[in-house]
């Protein structure tokens, strides 16, 4: 396969917009620049690399037919196209490296139908909006990022990997967590393809490099009455072992187990009354029916419950907005020099490697854990806060983790394979060759395509 470049020259953007007829377009440079960005600046490496990258035109279709019309215009003019949801990603997934069209899918936000355990939605539907429709029927989305209130389902599937709920349901890539997709291609005559079952992995977490998602069938989980609890511990490793045990306690229904070493709790301004100085904190979302056995487990580990809200007072997982990538957001609001890592520690009920890293790096790499289910086992994923000094030192920290068996999903690159996958996905690459022969979809993000991997 020889990839074709997507370089575009001398495009008359007024004429291009005219080709789109009544489809909403945005030409205002300030708005275009705003809609060309995400939270890439969490990384000092990406901030330097991506600060000057913007699209030329934003298009906001309302139907799949309008998406097809945009696709035809882009192919005819050889114009790059970058798909965007709410822009809540952290790795520059939605930032156009070669300009062109930003395809904003937030106006395609319908929940088309809901069945027991399953929903059909458009890509621009916000996760919280989906739940508002499904919860009265006893169901909710299985997992969500900390940007739950604003993130779209299409953006989450294309750029995310897991989140609040992953302690029960694993990660988005796990079989059963995505049932079907409809995608629009960028062939000479664009078309709609439906992918079902394992075929969805050709597009899942591909940064929009090989298909414009226009519809999704997603599984739902039981909508328990969720309570929010803060537990504090004098010792970080005790807090971590408590989190490991809670995640493995099958009789206690957990949705979030988030552990924060001091001084991270000091960055949570709105929670300070529940976060004593010098103590590690565990932020929890559990079924309200499980509060009593949870209390017994807290007592066993010597922790203290400092805050508790029942389901009626929790208001859509407000505590979740201090976890996952929101932890980094709150910390950077206090100290903008901080950055972060994404680490998956190997399964080990004794947490030996985690303990080694905690003591080795001290406050240079501050421990923040999110527990999740991996192949049936509960493991800690680290979203550690890093006191950034130089790119070279950041690389040293990453290598130190990897050399000892931790997996780093590098958040300091916008290249698909160099972040979480660490390998060329042959299935995704082959699918791109089929549906995007001119390499117009989010160019510069898929290393396998740029290198012409066979």
Automatic annotation (TrEMBL):
It comes from the Bacteria. InterPro entries: FAD-bd_PCMH (IPR016166), FAD-bd_PCMH-like_sf (IPR036318), FAD-bd_PCMH_sub2 (IPR016169), Oxid_FAD_bind_N (IPR006094). Coiled coil: none annotated. Residues 50-223 form the FAD-binding PCMH-type domain. Pfam families: FAD_binding_4. GO terms for biological process: lactate catabolic process. One of its GO terms (molecular function) is FAD binding. PROSITE patterns: FAD_PCMH. This is FAD-binding oxidoreductase. It comes from Vasconcelosia minhoensis LEGE 07310.
